[in-house]
């Protein structure tokens, strides 16, 4: 992947390529595809909190094509001795000021209006607009974005934010692979090991927190 070309002095999307492997036990990133390589990053699948696609409202430095290939993972990091949220506030950015705070199913919602391309995590329809964007909520912890009308929807999943988490932004090689990773990781989270998946692997890129 080549970073998007920008004018002098502007920030560029930075990433490191890894080889990702997922099974029902762990999601791991390896430096290469060699059989005996040691994982440089590893998540116990029982520690996964949230997995979702990102939008332009989330990622500060990426073009439209790159955004379609990026997904966001949040996982419990208490085993590594963390005492607070490790992700920088630069990782994911809120597009406008909070107007109202509400909580529902453990979410800490704030009412927002999005003026950049953003989609609802429940109905997947447009959540943004240049003139009169639809009323929306975003959870300040897990970044879930929904139409205001979905606040009582049975499809609204509970927020699993623990207060001791890390976040990864990962970019797949293609949009299709990105969607597949999100689907498989969400499936692993939902099954809690009761429905093991086969081993899945592919090349993937990891964005450091200071690059977005």
Automatic annotation (TrEMBL):
Give the UniProt keywords, A-Z: Metal-binding, Phosphoprotein, Zinc
Indicate yes or no for the key word Phosphoprotein.
Answer: yes
Cross-referenced CDD domains:
C1_ROCK
Domain of life where this protein originates: Eukaryota
Q: Which PROSITE patterns match?
A: ZF_DAG_PE_2
Record's SMART domains? C1 (SM00109)
One MF term in GO for this entry? metal ion binding
InterPro entries with a match to the protein in the record: C1-like_sf, PH-like_dom_sf, PKC_DAG/PE
**Entries under Pfam families matching the protein:** C1_1 (PF00130)
- Locate the Phorbol-ester/DAG-type domain: which residues? 106-159
Q: Does the keyword tRNA-binding apply?
A: no
> Which protein is depicted?
Phorbol esters/diacylglycerol binding domain protein
